[in-house]
Amino acid sequence: MRKFAAEKSRNLLAHREIFSSVLQHPTASLYSSSSHSKKSQLLLRFLNTTAAPNPSSSSESMASDYSSTPVKLDSINPKVLECEYAVRGEIVTLAQKLQEELKKNPGSHPFDEILYCNIGNPQSLGQQPITFFREVLALCDHPAILDKSETQGLFSADSIERAFQILDQIPGRATGAYSHSQGIKGLRDTIAAGIEARDGFPADPNDIFLTDGASPAVHMMMQLLTRSKNDGILCPIPQYPLYSASIALHGGTLVPYYLDEATGWGLEISDLKNQLETAKSKGISVRALVVINPGNPTGQVLAENNQQQIVDFCKKEGLVLLADEVYQENIYVPDKQFHSFKKVARSMGYGEKDISLVSFQSVSKGYYGECGKRGGYMEVTGFSPEIREQIYKVASVNLCSNISGQILASLIMNPPKVGDESYESYSAEKDAILSSLARRAKKLEEALNGLEGVTCNRAEGAMYLFPRIELPKKAIEAANAVNTAPDTFYARRLLNATGIVVVPGSGFGQVPGTWHFRCTILPQEDRIPAIISRLTEFHKGFMDEFRG
Amino acid sequence: MRKFAAEKSRNLLAHREIFSSVLQHPTASLYSSSSHSKKSQLLLRFLNTTAAPNPSSSSESMASDYSSTPVKLDSINPKVLECEYAVRGEIVTLAQKLQEELKKNPGSHPFDEILYCNIGNPQSLGQQPITFFREVLALCDHPAILDKSETQGLFSADSIERAFQILDQIPGRATGAYSHSQGIKGLRDTIAAGIEARDGFPADPNDIFLTDGASPAVHMMMQLLTRSKNDGILCPIPQYPLYSASIALHGGTLVPYYLDEATGWGLEISDLKNQLETAKSKGISVRALVVINPGNPTGQVLAENNQQQIVDFCKKEGLVLLADEVYQENIYVPDKQFHSFKKVARSMGYGEKDISLVSFQSVSKGYYGECGKRGGYMEVTGFSPEIREQIYKVASVNLCSNISGQILASLIMNPPKVGDESYESYSAEKDAILSSLARRAKKLEEALNGLEGVTCNRAEGAMYLFPRIELPKKAIEAANAVNTAPDTFYARRLLNATGIVVVPGSGFGQVPGTWHFRCTILPQEDRIPAIISRLTEFHKGFMDEFRG
């Protein structure tokens, strides 16, 4: 039922879609009169082909039942209508439906279970939490047991000690109280110390804003910077669709720059410059540059000299650098390492007052993968006290982020150290997760590259592969015939045949005329061979069916 | 320093303030040409008098240090500038400064500690969490101990059983995974059952959206309903400033209706009608009515027949009823009880498709007071599937609310029952908190009513008193002389003299020319006599100083 409703609303949207904020702008022939016109025409085509199929007459009758209620699709905020978030979009809705069917009628589909490879949600696929982190959280949730003798037998000594330390940092030891709107000061001290240890440059606890995951932090910055459609945010294409969704919700314009698939999703400063100039010439005031490093969905890790160029570009052009660094612990190749943009900027001699830089971090990613805890922070540097005050004010309207998430954010930035009782088990758990992720990334990448018409860059970091598929002409025609984007058509067929859930590339943006999907590397390692064989078998069948 | 920055930004705002969304509207002579013109002229005066004092030259030099950074006050989203949230505003910033001074130099002020009566944050003032709830949260955070023998000695049997039940409701028992964007289905089942038990009418788990506290839920609805300044939301005056802040952030218009202080903050349907008609005549499309019951900051509990009138009004006028019911457990007088608006509407025969109603609930209030957990939900009824789909989409952009908050929301709607091992201790803890709050409310109300020039309605519910102060003419002149609202002037003096933090009435809105403050009833009971004597002594001195 929900699916039909979704389809109806999508049809009402007609040509509005993920990039509508660009395309609907009054001045925005932006991407049809420039040197990028081919891309943009194809972008338009992308918009048309993602419109959903089969407007069902049943949805008409459903809507009419609610005819006496006041809120209609044409009377809600159009920015909400415009917003799309493919990671939990149509394919996932279909997956949930199949899952319910499997529960009711086991054997009703050619697979036993749905395998969610659509989202970076490690623990949903069996990854176990880091024991030390959970010990500390449990003790902080129920401090009454801290002094009990049985607790010694159940919890590590350093988790008990850490819980005491944290409670001492919380006014009144009240883990059930609202905190300072930026988060508990003592926890921010710990996080700042962790950043200093990571970067080798000072960090100020007053620059830290603890948030319910990185997403609310991104929203806060978009809300701050966006006055109207005339304000633009430079975003990579492909991008994590939180950015396009947030820009749409706040009424701004997404200014795309393309990562170059042929050079391992390279970021070319010349492309940034071109896109910036094109946007400017159309009256767009570009406010910020989003960089996701390691990349999502693309998995590349930026080289330090590339980061220096980006910093210089932002400095020169007066752009805020919004650095999505939530995958900073997820690096899988020996020839790459993570450098925070703040470290890079400081190494270049740029101080607090030289460059405006926001770094986003989350407890949901890394080796910890604590998505359900909704913890994270942003480190806000290079903004005047008046602007900082405005950010604080917006944070204060929602009072504070959840305290367990705050505690966890402090733990990931200050994990057990050599000599602590938990250090050995902590290290073993961490290393096992990261090395297994590296092996899974490699195996899946090799398997994908072995498929007909598929090419896939290696995942240097993050949690995803983003293979490109050369779809046969007949498959594209079949997709067009049901008014579906070809990559969505492929992903739907894959799901129906195998139970594997991936996200079509059109949800992230891609060079028009190319087709991709995003697949996480998160299924447990012993499941990977079966996944590869199911995927391979499906793909062969699909290509056989549609080969010209 | 932060204070100076805040003042500078406020001065830049000039006449923009809490009701600016009304006043700046192109068509909005709304409140100066109507029968309510006296109120509105005074409202304008309120706007002017809340402008902050002493634009400091030091803020000029601070700002210039950041001259090479790109983001300036005049280049950020003006809706962010407009937004105000007095509960964590100027007085609280001053309180934090004094607290730091006390820490560095004990004895530097005529009090030992800051007493935060500005915010409904019970555990920050020593209220203890309900043991059963924290046991379950701790066990869900660290399920590895569930099977250990020591756990039996540390945790109640029913908390262990409940933790197992909850884990069984979570796919893969993964408390560290993102959940369904509306929240874990099994927990929504529990909440829906709790609503049914409370109301005696069916509740659907698919109507429940679990959120990080009630505030994000309110933002979601404001975001959905607000297209432009031409969309209005009817809000009580005085109101909890989340509403004015959220309306400002989403670019809508606050349409005020006044609660009648003389009749115990009564809600008159005739006033609602007048305000609605006036707004309509100015081109405002009024979308929704906010009702806070029990009231914040006003503490009244609506009578059922008054609620029926409100439901009929919304039905007739095609308004969404946004029912803030977060204080549903906080009732202190025997002659009043809580009725949810859904129960009232269903009792009147209005079904799902007859009225659009959103009820907000939170784990932060009630007897539980778990503010730091950021849990809550909204029950969304009377919206078509297409609209529901849009709400779901916006929820999905932020993935999900935190799982501990979700679990806690299920616990408060399904606490221990007679026969459970924890029932006795749970009941004792709950009753002790609620009966103590009732006594505190009564004592503080009586004390306030004993002060010269102060009148205070009883707190029938919620967590606040909102006394009115007849300020001497000289005090008002002294406040005007430093460009401060008289009630802010009073609150600042109170803080500097006693360490007691209250929120000036101007932060909530009040009939212009009247002055109030909001004071929580949350300090622990043994502290109340000292607070009363400090407040009484201060008030006498203040009145003596300014008496004509």
UniProtKB/TrEMBL annotation, chains A, B:
Gene3D superfamilies linked to this entry: 1.10.287.1970, Aspartate Aminotransferase, domain 1 (3.90.1150.10), Type I PLP-dependent aspartate aminotransferase-like (Major domain) (3.40.640.10)
Pathway annotation from the record: Amino-acid degradation; L-alanine degradation via transaminase pathway; pyruvate from L-alanine: step 1/1; Photosynthesis; C4 acid pathway
Claim: Translocase is one of the keywords in the record: no
Cofactor requirements of the protein: pyridoxal 5'-phosphate
Keywords: Aminotransferase, Pyridoxal phosphate, Transferase
Domain Aminotransferase class I/classII large residues, every copy: 172-524
EC number: 2.6.1.2
Family: Belongs to the class-I pyridoxal-phosphate-dependent aminotransferase family. Alanine aminotransferase subfamily.
Self-association and partners: Homodimer.
Protein known as: alanine transaminase
Phylogenetic placement of the source organism: Eukaryota, Viridiplantae, Streptophyta, Embryophyta, Tracheophyta
